[in-house]
Amino acid sequence: MESKESSFERLTDDVLMKIVSFVAFKDMPSLRCTSKRLNSICGQQLLSRSVLVNEGFFDFKQQCYLYENGIFNKEMKIRLTYAKMLNLLKKTLPNVRSLALVAVDGLFDENVHIIGEYLPNLQNLFIFEKNDHLKDSGLSRLFPKCPNLQRVWIHGIGLDGSCFKSLSKITYFSYMPYYNSFIETIDLTMLVSSLQTLRIHSKNHFSFPKHFLPHCDHLKSLSIPIFDETQFATILNNISVVGRVSKLGVAIHFQLESELLQTLLPNHAIKNLSFKFLSFVSTENIGELLQRFPNVEHLCLKLKRPGNHSRNEVVDINQLLSIISNVQRLQTLELCVRKEHNAKSLRINTLLSLLNIERLRDLQIGYLWAEEVNEIIACVQDYYSQRSDKRVKISLIIGDKATVFVPSANIAFNLIDRISRHGYYASQCALSVAISFV
Amino acid sequence: MSAIKFETSDGFTIQVERETAVVSKVVKNFLEYHPTDKCTFHLNCVDNATLRKVVEWMRHHKDDAYIETESDESDEERSQDVSIEMDPWDANFLNEDLFFLLDILNAANFMKIKVLFKNCCKKIYLMSKGKSSVEIKRLLKERCDFTDEDLQRIANKYEWMARVN
Description:
The structure holds two protein chains of two kinds.
Chain A: H1 13-20, H2 28-32, H3 36-47, E1 51-55, H4 60-67, E2 77-78, H5 82-91, E3 98-102, H6 114-118, E4 124-128, H7 136-142, E5 151-155, E6 172-176, E7 197-200, E8 221-226, H8 229-242, E9 247-252, H9 258-262, E10 272-277, H10 283-291, E11 298-303, H11 317-324, E12 332-337, H12 348-355, E13 362-368, H13 370-386, E14 393-398, E15 404-406, E16 414-417, E17 423-425, E18 435-437
Parallel strand pairs in A: 1-2, 1-3, 3-4, 4-5, 5-6, 6-7, 7-8, 8-9, 9-10, 10-11, 11-12, 12-13, 13-14, 14-16, 15-18
Antiparallel strand pairs in A: 16-17
Chain B: E1 3-7, E2 13-17, H1 18-21, H2 25-33, E3 38-42, H3 48-61, H4 65-69, H5 75-78, H6 88-93, H7 98-110, H8 114-128, H9 133-140, H10 148-157
Parallel strand pairs in B: 1-3
Antiparallel strand pairs in B: 1-2
Helix pairs in contact in B: 3-7, 7-8
């Protein structure tokens, strides 16, 4: 009926603007070439864009940190040198509120403060640097120029914390020291009055700043690595006593023993709990640890391959799942066990008992072998054909190259390839792990 | 039980349960100020086929918490949400041809159903994603009002944007 009319002529400028707001930078040139109207709308829309990611170097881990929070976004990605980007900010993108600089060429301690001159309204700033070019001195010139900063990520930079003197209002801080850094701690006292979320990522020894937690009045979410037993007990008990933190993540870099667990106080405030075990831990000790957090709703457990332990000390995934089935308020579970070749395979019954947890809505489990995946899909399909009242979103992380058979499903399975960790819905598959429909 | 009626531009009337109808912000706001059990909304730019589709979407999403919390005040905050990911049910539901999609988009805009509006925008963008300007033009049946010189100039000027992998 309207075939003569151009499709977009039926839309008002406002609506068209909204569509253009989703368009990735790399798709802009071809869209601008379609018509004068679209060209001018694209130009106007750019002025109001608030997110920019400048990625000079692809780093998988940083990508995960960058995109997990929903502030930054892959479509807003460009690759420019620092000088060219500054020019762009001035001319085309003056309203950027969220800026990510991922290993950008030409960014140094001497010139980092120029961002602040161009973007005084900056709210979210992500900086990843891989050459140790940045220091406290440059950042302490930048921060006073951005009084509206709320969330800051500083990754790959060795800081002592003196740059925070001029930065007192931020609510979110994520820090990853330079991998060769000799600085083993950071002074965060300037941030105690405002900080709500603190995340520290470090594989090297890092000691959490003392006297920080008791004074942090607004801290709700904490994610840190812990390298020794005494710190573990001190920090966790400190959190339990204060009782404000509701989200806790700990990367445990030492072997957890049951004597230590006896000294832990119960914590009723934690709703969101995440543990990453980088040393050996027994299933019983995980159970003991989980008992300290009776109100957990969202649980994430990651078990890395223990380095120097004999093979018969493999964690039994079935036993682990039956421990987790006792967590009464569980809504989401993410379980990632690095698999040994002699590990027992996942029993369907243990999985089904997990699905019976009343409030469970989201389950992510791995790593699984192909046979297990196929068995689970068949079984869960069966389970849901009998119970239509409940839907759990299930994601399966596949541990090897595999052919997975997905029955023409009314349940969307999210299959995740271990290597790329990208999720694909089985109902629209394009997975490097081959998937066949039967 | 109370019911709300919608009258379409081509003269059809569709009756909808109240909890479904209030997914539309227009209906919700109206009912807040004029509490009533029965009323008819005239949608003079939405036809029958489109409205049926939109109502189907509203029924599916009537219990979603985010529909409730979606308010105009948070507009500033939400303008930062530019991710093109969407609920797989929606992605599948909106697998329609461009013209129908534009009708849905206009209806969602008129009835103030933000999530549907946003997802239509994303879907329309996804249709043109990665395509050349010639292909987009064919898709949109847009007339090209540029000279070759203009085109070359634009292509050169914005070349840097395309330089990402």
